Amino acid sequence: MIEVTLKDGSKKSYQSGTNVYDIAKDISQGLARAAVAAEINGKVTDLNTSLYEDCTLNLLTFDSEEGKATYWHTASHIMAQAVKRLFPNVKLAIGPSIENGFYYDFDSEKSFTPDDLTKIEAEMKKIIKEDLPIERFTLPRDEALKLMENEPYKIELINELPVDAEISFYKQGEFTDLCSGPHLPSTGKVKAFKLIQQAGAYWRGDEKNKMLQRIYGIAFPKASQLEEYLKMLEEAEKRDHRKLGKELELFSFDEEVGPGLVLWHPKGARVRMRIEDFWRQEHIKNGYDIVYTPHIGRGKLWETSGHLGFYKEGMYSAMDVDGQDFYAKPMNCPFHIAIYKSRLYSYRDLPLRWAELGTVYRYEKSGTLHGLLRVRGFTQDDAHLFCAPEQMPDEIRRVLRFCLYMLDAFGFDKYKIYLSTKPKEKYVGDDQMWADATKALKEAVIAEGLECDIDEGGGAFYGPKIDIKIKDALNREWQCSTIQFDFNEPERFDMTYVAPDGTRKRPYMIHRALLGSIERFFGVLTEHYAGAFPVWLAPVQVKILPILESHHEYANKIAEKLQQLDVYAEVDLRNEKIGYKIREARLEKIPYMLIIGDKEVENQSVSVRSRKDGDLGAMNVDAFISKLMEEIRTRAN
RNA sequence: GCUGGUGUAGCACAGUCGGUAGUGCAGCUGAUUCGUAAUCAGCAGGUCGUGCGUUCGAGUCGCAUCACCAGCUCCA
């Protein structure tokens, strides 16, 4: 007999060799039905694992992260089995679970059409109905290779497994796949599923490799959960900044102007100006100076900076100016360095913090453009910090704190921080510099009580960096803030400062963007607020709705008063019913509506309707104004 | 750039078997003078993304191209 300790701490005895699934049934039929995998002594494994020793056992349901992963992984195997049945010549690559569902990559002569996906779905339903038991087995390497002799990608994977690795397979009916598991006990466990889309994907994510056919899917234990998920996607679509940008007249693209080139409409520009005004104010408060630099620069500059060597594919081709090459800037740094180089700086002048809302142009592959989130011309909220080595750790902490303050001001409380360290091969600067800089970055993150993912070797060749990514409506991460060391350019431009001992020393240079690019930031911000910007950012902050023509004069007077206070106020003078005007103002997501009728004119008051709380009743005009101004001043969310 | 999909009025969409285009909203005009999410009527609006081809005839079929959408790769 063995003793099994359950999650709640209770212990039960079973015959050695008892299957986990049977234990689940012994605990309760409901649990057995809901269980998808088991955690034995902390290790996630199949439900039909037999136990031979005392252990702790935790039964995982779909609700757990591991449970979902197992469920989706099995769904991907079912899909692969269906594809193999329908298209026997297709070769299998890999098919993992992902954050939202699963995919499987196939090497197929033809790509799958939407029609094929329907057929595959039908075949999957059959496989689920067959309720094939899923069995795990292991093989020694030579036998494993023999078994997979017709699957070249699997051969490649087996050959790369460490010598001592256990090579496991999962078999369901006629279908066997190399897989470490775990899996559901049988195919019938998968209930509701849907194949979402087909897409091309390079083998191992490398552009140089063959493009495979990937099919994405999602699965749930209940049909209602699938429906809910699909509904959630629909809801997310409503928050899409591209859709809102059109509806709220914030920005547009024009085919004739060119892809990835943003046209900011008056309403979008109003929001942008508020962002930029705030940004400028805060930079001045934080010890920055503002600089302005040109949009193009001589070829020589980009040669010195190294951009023509390392970043050429991101730059637009040269324009001829009096027989010389000039390039549109993909980055602002060489110009800021040029300002630095215009005179001699002493250690007493450091640190220097120079910021610019610098508009840059970068060539992005056509397939990567995405609304405001990836464009070809954008304005970075750029700054460069030049400091002495001993000032560096302090500067990093400062800039990180500033960064978090900015994100917080815009209501972002969920983001992910990545720390990228020295690349394995190509890099500049000595190891000590890299170590110091990386340490400073890491300590700054820790000092702020935050966590970060380490992207080992993911730094640029010129220095380590911290990136902060924010998620869009569909949960996709977009890099906004970035703090990057640069060991390259100070060297290339031979930047120096005079040290206390009179010698020339090389300053540390740090690139940083807090919002990233105004375009991208505005895009994620729009999705974050679902277009309902807080009062301080709203393109129309107050809309005044007179009921009758006789109220127009008073309404205009209030609008004027608000405009004098730098408030975006509009009056709806149309000959429409009040309900209609309110409906439109609501669709425009305007934070405050002032309804003006006989009563208001008589009492010199306004009836306030807020976007958030509805009808607030009548209010003295000055009382409303001070409430509004306070909300703007505090940038209430 | 690659794989697949989409492109019809300002916006959201319909358009059968190939027979020269419709609906709703918005717009304009008129009527309506009204208190917290849509008053009524009339009018106007389109080289069906663009080009070439097949056909007696193309929004519809084929090819090319541009743009957009999802994903891959890349990145603020």
Describe it for me?
The structure is a single chain. It contains 20 helices and 35 strands. The two termini are 61 Å apart. The protein has an eight-stranded mixed beta sheet with strand order 18-22-23-30-27-26-24-25. β28 (497-498) and β29 form a beta hairpin. It is 35% helix and 28% strand. The mean pLDDT is 93. It has 637 residues and is α+β, with helices and mostly antiparallel strands. The relative contact order is 0.07. The chain has four domains: 2-61, Ubiquitin-like (UB roll), CATH 3.10.20; 66-236, Threonyl-trna Synthetase, Chain A, domain 2 (Threonyl-tRNA Synthetase, Chain A, domain 2), CATH 3.30.980; 262-528, BirA Bifunctional Protein, domain 2 (2-Layer Sandwich); 542-633, Anticodon-binding domain (Rossmann fold, 3-Layer(aba) Sandwich), CATH 3.40.50. The chain binds one RNA strand of 76 nucleotides through β14, β15, α8, β23 and β27.
